[in-house]
Amino acid sequence: MVVFPTITSRNQTVEKVVKGKTYVYERIPYYNPKIRNTSYHYRYVGRRDDGGIRKIRSVLPKRSLIHGPFIPIINIVREMGIEEMLKKHLTQTESMEIIAIAVSKIVRPLPLASIDTWFDGTSLSRTMGVDLKSQRISELLDRIGKSDLYRQFSRDLISRINPGNSLLYDITSLPSYGSAEILEYGHAKDHPELEQINMGMVMERSRNIPLFFEIHSGSIPDVVTLKRTVEGIRKLIPKIEIILDRGFFSHENLSLLKDDSFIIAASLVPKAVKNVFSSASRTVDRADNVIMYENDPIFCKSVNFTMNDLGLRGYFYHDPGRESDERSDFHRKLSEKRSAVEKLQIRPNISETIESIASHYRRYFTWRMEDGKIKTRARNNAISAAENRMGRFLLVYRGGYTPLECLSIYRNRDSIEKAFRTLKTDLDIFPMRVRKESTIRGMLFIFFISLIIRTGLIRGMISSGLMNKYSLEKMLLELEKLHVVEDASGNITELERTRKQKDILEALEKVSWW
User: What predicted TM-score, i.e. pTM, was given to this entire model?
Assistant: First the structure.
């Protein structure tokens, strides 16, 4: 810190240079009887700026507002054209309300009734100036849920970003405490006691950008949902390459995709697939069939087979490392199930209790009552049959894929599973507490916008190297410390950025959000 005094008659102007910025004070001398000499009072004048003195904090602060996280997030919204696309179909106010709610789910996931309180403490309340009271949010969700906005938005998004044709598709169940007609009991892994809807989503594979989503009744199985989604996406991207897991493997879906490129894991249910497993397993483990995947050897054999009237091509894989992991996991869980059953006290309806505990592991052991206790015994033939399938899988494809390309593309599809996990945990969609179908649809659209912004933020962190230093949550927490101050006159001033905040924001300024 350097002090430059300038004498002006009795009072003096003092300049202090701190970190390259010059602050100006008035130094007023007075006689101090304690030391019998001159002392000084200091009065802050302002900061020297462009040859003049600009007063800062001449008015006392009225409130401090969270600001840091919204600097990169609003940049994403603008660069991706989200605000512009929403304004094509909604009013300015409605567009800002949707963006504000979507952003809140990224920075601070809260119940809809609590968003307004959080929003008032952020700089967005000044820049957006929208009403996020619970009643207003419900009206907004109801309105957009009754419209075709989600399809119109997807059409505009795909037209704007010009996505590649390699797509990922999956579906997940979303339980709800509501009572809308679309909610039905299904096969949910979480909260099976609740009715649910199914949400299918399409993502671009290369950039992990969510492109399109559809909502289905809760009881519709995964395999049936593909036709509606493919027909919808073909209107937007005529030539597609789609990557699917075994839940979508069926004769109907393979026929649907017969003119498209695809990779789909085969289900073991069809007899034709069982025959491929049986024959290929005998010859796949040969040195000539080894491919290297991430420095690990995997055996692969090309196969051709017919399922009903369809001629199909595929690659049959045996992954020894995966087989070892699956075998270890299988026997650990089977042992736990048998132990839990043997500890049960004998009582009425004990069979139902055992079925509930053992779940699908019930086929691998028998049980009997002996001397007042429950005894179990392994079904070795069934266990051997399960072990013979471990680490082995069949990928059916159409297109010019090599064995390594086919495996790499399929295994990279976990990005859509992570997206669903993000919806259910990080964005706090799970379980839903809204009751009307239109409100459910409206809320899912806003969560879809949140997911687009969040995946863009993660892409930016990866490309800038920030992901090596921070998780997304930790980075947002660091940026939350950056506030702006509003004074009584309504003026807004950003407080000084810390070194960490400067490094984060400077790194993100250089990123292309696409």
Answer: 0.77
